[in-house]
Design goal:
globular, mainly alpha, single chain, 10 helices
Length: 255
């Protein structure tokens, strides 16, 4: 029995006849975009990248942050082009730009407070990782490799930043680290107490934000996998409920 086999139906209109695709129905809205919902939801990436780039240019932030937001823009544009065209070259742009953006964050994370030589070595390692993933993924064409490489890179960057935040901001860890390298705090007791209170507040805020970030990533990953696993059912259900409600079942677009 169909999930939507009921006499009650919200006001809607039927999907136009269309060529079916993996996330189909394809080209039902326009001949210029195969997957209209998956394409248009990428405009959120483009907007956020624009805001980030504008902020970097206006406030003179480090170049690595500008590069990160430019990479973020490439993800949005690449995904838009792929879902509009379903072209394999655009698919590579969509998927590999995720790796390149993470490599930018990898460089920003591991080059922080390093010497020029150390930063150059980190840059070379990031370029090597990006080149290796690109070449190997193009060779085997296995999406699981791309997903695992992206997940591993993201986890490395996340936990390294978590460690850096603890060492740099938590007063007890910072004092211990300074003692180990023979450095003393330059603040007097009053100023040091104010700095410690500020940093503890920052850490508290960050740990409140981390579950939100991880939760949204986990939810997106779940929707992504459900969309892959139950694509035929979702296509059928979208046609059963009609438009605009079928858009709510566009799992790939939402995640």
């Amino acid at each position: 029995m169909s999930l939507f086999s009921t006499s009650f139906r919200l006001p809607s209109f039927d999907y136009p006849p269309a060529r079916e695709g993996f996330w189909g129905p394809d080209y039902y809205a326009t001949v210029y975009s195969a997957e209209i919902v998956n394409s248009l939801t990428n405009l959120a990436f483009v907007y956020l990248a624009y805001k980030g780039i504008s902020n970097c240019l206006r406030n003179g932030h480090d170049t690595v942050f500008l590069a990160g937001f430019i990479s973020y823009l490439v993800i949005g544009v690449g995904s838009f082009l792929f879902h509009s065209s379903l072209n394999y070259g655009m698919q590579l742009l969509d998927e590999l730009s995720m790796i390149y953006t993470t490599c930018v964050m990898f460089y920003a994370t591991f080059s922080h407070k390093r010497s020029a030589k150390g930063a150059a070595l980190v840059f070379a390692l990031a370029v090597f990782i990006a080149a290796f993933v690109t070449a190997y993924y193009y060779h085997i064409k296995d999406p699981l490799f791309h997903q695992n490489a992206f997940a591993l890179l993201t986890a490395v960057v996340f936990f390294r930043n978590l460690y850096g935040m603890e060492v740099s901001l938590r007063p007890s860890r910072r004092a211990k680290r300074r003692a180990e390298v023979g450095r003393l705090d330059v603040h007097d007791a009053t100023d040091q107490a104010r700095v410690d209170q500020r940093d503890v507040s920052v850490i508290k805020t960050m740990y409140q934000m981390i579950p939100v970030g991880l939760g949204s990533i986990a939810l997106g990953f779940l929707i992504w996998n459900l969309d892959n696993a139950y694509c035929p059912n979702l296509r059928r259900w979208r046609r059963a409920v009609g438009l605009p409600w079928g858009i709510l079942l566009e799992g790939h677009g939402w995640w």
